[in-house]
C-alpha cells in the first residue's frame, strides 16, 4: 500500500522507434503525492512541478543510441519534507542535464548521472535541514549547487574530468566533495557563509590538470580539509572569522597554495610533496598558528602574520644541493618562528 497518491508516467521509447522525442509534464498541488517517471530511448525531456508537503518524485531517464539523444529534466518542489530522486544513464549520449529546485525545509534531492559524457546537474535548495547528494560517474561532467538556510548538507561524488561549484549561505552547513577525476578534471569552488560550517574536498587524478579548488568561508569555527593528489594543483583559501581550522595536503606537481586568514584562534596545517610547491599565507588576528612542510623541490614559502602570539613553523626538506627559499614576517607580541631547511 502506497501512502502517496501516485501519478505514474512511463515512456519506453526503445519499443517505439518512430518516436525520437518524449516530453513529459506533470503538475501536482497538495500533500503526500507521488510521481514516478521512466523515459528510455530517444531524446527525452521532462518537467515536474509539485507544490505541497511530503511529496515524492522518482525519475529514471536513458537516452537513445547516438550521442545526439541526451535527456533533460526540470523538477520543482515547493513545500516541506519533499524528496526527489533522479537517475540518468546511457552509454552513448552526451549532455544529459538535470535541474532540481526545492523550496522549503527538510527536503532531500538525490541525482545520479551514470555513463554518458558531458552531463550537467544544477541543484538549488532554500530552507533548513535540506540534503542533496550528487553522483556523476563518467566523463566531463559538471555541477552547480546552491544552498540557502541552516543545517544543510551537500555531498558530491565525481569521476572523470568533472568540475563542481558549490555555495552555501547560512549557518551550520556542511559540504563534502570527492573528485576522482582522471584525466583533465578538477576545479572546485566552495563558498560558505555563517557559523560552524564544515567543508571537505578531495581531488585525486593525474595526467593532467587535476587542480584548482577555491574556498571562501565567512563566519566562526569553520573547518576545512583539502586533499589534492597529482596534476597541476592550485589551492586558494580565504577564511574570515573566529576559531577557523585549515588542513591541506598537496601531493603535487606543480602545487601553489595561496591563502589568507583573518580572525582569532586560526590554525593552518599544510603539507606539500613532490615538484613545484609555492606557498603564500597571510594571517591577521591573534593566537594564530601555521605549520607548513614542503618536502619537495622548487619550494618557495612566504608567511606573514599580523597580531599577537602567532606561531610559524616551516620545514623545507629536499635532497637537492640548494635549499628552497623562505621568508617569514611577523608583527605583534609573543610571536615565534621556526625554519628548517635541508
From TrEMBL:
Membrane-spanning segments: none
Family recorded in the similarity comment: Belongs to the CsgA/CsgB family.
GO cellular component annotations of the record: pilus
UniProt keyword annotations, A-Z: Signal
Protein name: Curlin associated repeat-containing protein
Entry-linked InterPro entries: Curlin_rpt
Signal sequence annotation: 1-22
A Pfam family recorded for this sequence: Curlin_rpt
Entry's Gene Ontology BP terms: cell adhesion
Amino acid at each position: 500500500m502506497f501512502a502517496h497518491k501516485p501519478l505514474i508516467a512511463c515512456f519506453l521509447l526503445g519499443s517505439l522507434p518512430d518516436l525520437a522525442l518524449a516530453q513529459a509534464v506533470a503538475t501536482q498541488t497538495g500533500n503526500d503525492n507521488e510521481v514516478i517517471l521512466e523515459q528510455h530511448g530517444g531524446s527525452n525531456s521532462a518537467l515536474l512541478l509539485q507544490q505541497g508537503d511530503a511529496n515524492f518524485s522518482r525519475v529514471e531517464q536513458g537516452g537513445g543510441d547516438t550521442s545526439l539523444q541526451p535527456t533533460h529534466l526540470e523538477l520543482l518542489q515547493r513545500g516541506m519534507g519533499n524528496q526527489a530522486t533522479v537517475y540518468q544513464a546511457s552509454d552513448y549520449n552526451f549532455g544529459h542535464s538535470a535541474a532540481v529546485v526545492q523550496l522549503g525545509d527538510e527536503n532531500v534531492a538525490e541525482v545520479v548521472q551514470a555513463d554518458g559524457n558531458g552531463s550537467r546537474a544544477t541543484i538549488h535548495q532554500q530552507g533548513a535541514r535540506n540534503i542533496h547528494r550528487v553522483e556523476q560517474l563518467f566523463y566531463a561532467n559538471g555541477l552547480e549547487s546552491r544552498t540557502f538556510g541552516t543545517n544543510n548538507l551537500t555531498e558530491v561524488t565525481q569521476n572523470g574530468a568533472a568540475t563542481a561549484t558549490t555555495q552555501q549561505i547560512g549557518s551550520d552547513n556542511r559540504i563534502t566533495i570527492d573528485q576522482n577525476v582522471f584525466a583533465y578534471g578538477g576545479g572546485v569552488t566552495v563558498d560558505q557563509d555563517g557559523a560552524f560550517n564544515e567543508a571537505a574536498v578531495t581531488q585525486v587524478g593525474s595526467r593532467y590538470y587535476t587542480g584548482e579548488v577555491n574556498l571562501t568561508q565567512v563566519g566562526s569555527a569553520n573547518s576545512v580539509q583539502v586533499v589534492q593528489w597529482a596534476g597541476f594543483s592550485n589551492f586558494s583559501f580565504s577564511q574570515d572569522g573566529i576559531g577557523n581550522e585549515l588542513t591541506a595536503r598537496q601531493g603535487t606537481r606543480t602545487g601553489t597554495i595561496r591563502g589568507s586568514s583573518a580572525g582569532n584562534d586560526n590554525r593552518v596545517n599544510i603539507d606539500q610533496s613532490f615538484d613545484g610547491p609555492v606557498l603564500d599565507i597571510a594571517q591577521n588576528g591573534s593566537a594564530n598558528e601555521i605549520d607548513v612542510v614542503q618536502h619537495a623541490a622548487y619550494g618557495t614559502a612566504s608567511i606573514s602574520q599580523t597580531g599577537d602570539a602567532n606561531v610559524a613553523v616551516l620545514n623545507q626538506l629536499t635532497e637537492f644541493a640548494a635549499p628552497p627559499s623562505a621568508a617569514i614576517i611577523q608583527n605583534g607580541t609573543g610571536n615565534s618562528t621556526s625554519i628548517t631547511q635541508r
